[in-house]
Amino acid sequence: MKRIITTLLFTMFILANTHSQQNERCEVMFETNYGNIIFQLYNETPLHRDNFIKLVDSHYYDKMLFHRVIKDFMIQCGDPNSKNAQPGEQLGEKDCGYTIKPEFRIPLLFHKRGALAAAREPDYANPGRESSGSHFYVVWGRVFDDAQLRKMQARLDTIYGDTVKITPVMSDTYKTIGGTPHLDGGYTVFGEVKEGLDVIDKIQSADTDKNDRPLSDVIIIKAYITKDTRPKRKPDNRN
Fold this sequence. Notes:
Layout: H1 2-23, E1 26-32, E2 35-41, H2 46-57, E3 66-70, E4 74-77, E5 99-100, E6 115-118, E7 131-132, E8 136-139, H3 146-160, H4 168-176, E9 189-195, H5 197-204, E10 220-227
Antiparallel strand pairs: 1-2, 1-10, 2-9, 3-4, 4-8, 5-7, 6-8, 6-9
């Protein structure tokens, strides 16, 4: 009997430990001239998670600018041309040259304040709503009341039919924390700010020109992985 109980306890420990590991998230640090930001990447969006880690690991975002900033909406990055941009130069057209299939996870993952999401080309040029390989944005948004959320739901119904619904959990978040509900269902959310939301606030409040580029450059000094919780691949020993 003792052996059975010991075996059961050991099995339960292994299962609990495995579940905990599955729930752990990869984390990435962005050091900027406005302060540091730590992003957590969602396991529910593995294509976007792994791509973001690949780009960070290759130093793709080092010295890049947040080239598009709209107060009470979001901040955007991802144009490699921004690394050597002249003051006032219009940015945003260049990317890494590929797209990623969408990974919409409504209602689990949505555009709350601090959400990390993939930018993309508009529907008329991109009917599959595939994400840009390198352009991402961080949500700031605003706080909504019930009447405003009903209008947002009507807007979503017009675009997506009956497929994207603002749930009670989402509604409570938009009414307390804030966000951009009109983007739900059309853009992949693949992470969130773990630390540094105050830095996002400072960036989204920056003065900008007519093209939404900050008048004073917002620079990613360097980006790097601080935690990689993805399952380790077994080495290929085939000759």
